[in-house]
Amino acid sequence: MTALDQDALLSCYRSGQMSAAQFQRHCEDDPELAKMVEEAGREPSDAAVWRHKKRGSTYTIVGEAELQAEEPLSEGHILTIYRCRETGKLWARNAPEFHDGRFELITACEQKS
Fold it and tell me: Domain range for residue 87?
């Protein structure tokens, strides 16, 4: 399986187009895909840990994201965090704005062309 096929499978699973059981079968059939998934979920051993002063909870930073929104947001709004495949830049957008037609889901076949 090519890296593009592996990325397409992972994308289908993350978007809910494939069940966990289906994805697990693909991982069992493709050791490289299973390794890729394992490494993607592993936190670097040298990752900095941050503590919230008031709550005491701890965090690691995944990345910074630039917010694009047409209206002001407040605490509790759900943001969709997404990464540009060409540049690797992370972005954050109010979840309803992400799903209001500005973006469309492309199939694995369209990704290959």
Answer: 62-113
CB 92 within 8 A of CB 83: no
Give me the sign of the Cα torsion angle 85, 86, 91, 97: negative
Q: Each residue of 68-77: pLDDT tens digit? A: 888 888 888 8
Q: What's the number of domains the chain is made of?
A: 1
Q: How far apart are CA 12 and CA 8, in angstroms?
A: 6
Residue 30 falls inside a structural domain:
no
- How much is the pTM? 0.47
CB 31 within 8 A of CB 21: no
Pairing of strands 66-68, 90-94: parallel
Q: Which two tokens stand for residue 86?
A: 């060409």
Q: Which tokens is 4 given?
A: 């593009």
Question: Residue 93: phi, psi to the nearest 5?
Answer: -140, 145
Q: Which two tokens stand for residue 82?
A: 């997404």
Lookup result for tokens 């994805």: 23
The DSSP code for 34 is H
